[in-house]
Amino acid sequence: MKTRWQELRSKHWSGRPAQERRMIVWAAAVLLPVVYYFLLWQPAHRTVAKLHETLPVLQAQAAKLNDEAAEVDALRHRPQLAALDAAALKTSVEESAQRHQLRTAINTLEIQESNGVRVTCDAISFTAWMAWLRDLQQEQHIRADSISISALPQTGMVKISATLSNGNVQ
Known about the structure:
The chain is an alpha+beta fold. It contains four helices and four strands.
């Protein structure tokens, strides 16, 4: 290997005149830093700057993903709710209305075929209705499948027709 280098040197380098060798050395001394700058340093510097910009975004995404994974794990281990049949659902809704002092405002409370309960109120406070509905959902996992709300002339009073079901029933 060493002999090959010596052959190449004597054939291509040593065979050149001294002035030409000096010119090649000067050209290399000028061109090498320019080539280094444009081919190595500048692209690396730009990439580092881009990475500094994207790193916080990626870290935030990773943190959000970890939070969501923890939430999925918690939801996976949560016990399943027991599905209420229509009669038990009606009883539960009726007892909750009694506790919220809304039983007198409810005109009809009837069982539907699809394990649901139909509730109609001719005049009820919208605020009281929303508070009761929120408590039904949070405490007993009873949700409103459909609601029809009409405003009445009295301020804050509405006419409501709703179908309620257990949150676990399909």
